[in-house]
Amino acid sequence: WAAASPEYSKDIMIRAAEYAVDAVEVFSNLMAMEETDVNERKYSEGLYWMGLNFATLCRLGGGGKWSTQQAYDVANSSLSDCQKLRVTAPDERRAEVIFAQGVLCFCKAEAVLSGYLRSTKMDKEQLVERKYMQALQLFEHANQLWTGVYGEKHLETVKAITMIGTLLHRLQGAQAGMEWYRKELKIREELQGEMHPRTQQARRMYTSLLDAKLQAERRAGGPQNQPGVVRGSSSASQSQMSAAAAAAGVAGPAAPSPMAIDGQPK
């Protein structure tokens, strides 16, 4: 869940996508030979990771044999197939797919924002905001399911908490995501310890936003009430939010290579 870190380059994600394709093919062949619960589970897991890897590749602007749009299409198809296999699965496994679909919506919004994809039927900011809203709703649903199964203090649940904070920050500004970032930090401190890299990352995110908020209030003479990244935010905030998204398996930007899309949610 660290694909937002600099170590997860486009080359790494291309290899990850290729491995996912190979794994899904193997598990698909096993399913064709014998439809057991074990084989079906392995196949659905392969589709799940294929969806996440290609979603990340979409956010990076595509790579290897896949354009940005092709990476999105593969991710969307994989997660759709995975969801069909998990219709009657336990809540925690259905939550995984819902979370991954949220990641895909988030990655598509980021790709549009970075210029890797462009809308031909609606304003760019409208499309980005729409995909962010879809991602937020999916993360909230995943959070509800995981909380019902594991409780709030669990490493699965905290992934959704991280992304809810990130999306609220994107849509409504830093203050809207502050409580969720604080919640993430407290949970990670308790579950992973204060020195764990994920905890330290969460602490940097929370303290940087808190410092920025206090500085902005001092400059303005009162609380700041400005929109999030859809309408523009500082490069520091963008960098911090990319780091916060590490728990969601989404990688950072690369050089644009625009592809036209229909502008409608998928």
Oligomer: single chain
Count of beta strands:
2
Task: Report the span from N to C terminus.
Answer: 24 Å
Percent helix, as a range, is over 70%
Given the C-alpha coordinates, what overall shape results? globular
Order of helices and strands: HHHHEHHHHHE
Q: Provide mean pLDDT, rounded.
A: 84
Number of helices: 9
Uncertain spans, ≥5 residues at pLDDT below 50?
Answer: 1-5, 226-236, 246-266
Q: What percentage of the residues does DSSP assign to strands (E)?
A: under 5%
Broad structural category? mainly alpha
Radius of gyration: 18 Å
Strand line-up across the major sheet: 1-2
- Largest β sheet strand count, sense and barrel closure: 2 strands, parallel
Polypeptide structure, described:
By secondary structure, this protein is mostly helical. Helix content is 70%, strand content 2%. The protein contains nine helices and two strands, in the order ααααβαααααβ. The protein has helices at 10-33, 37-59, 68-85, 91-114, 124-150, 155-172, 174-192, 197-220, 235-244, and strands at 117-119, 259-261. Strands 1-2 form a two-stranded parallel sheet. The model is unreliable at 1-5, 226-236 and 246-266 (pLDDT under 50).
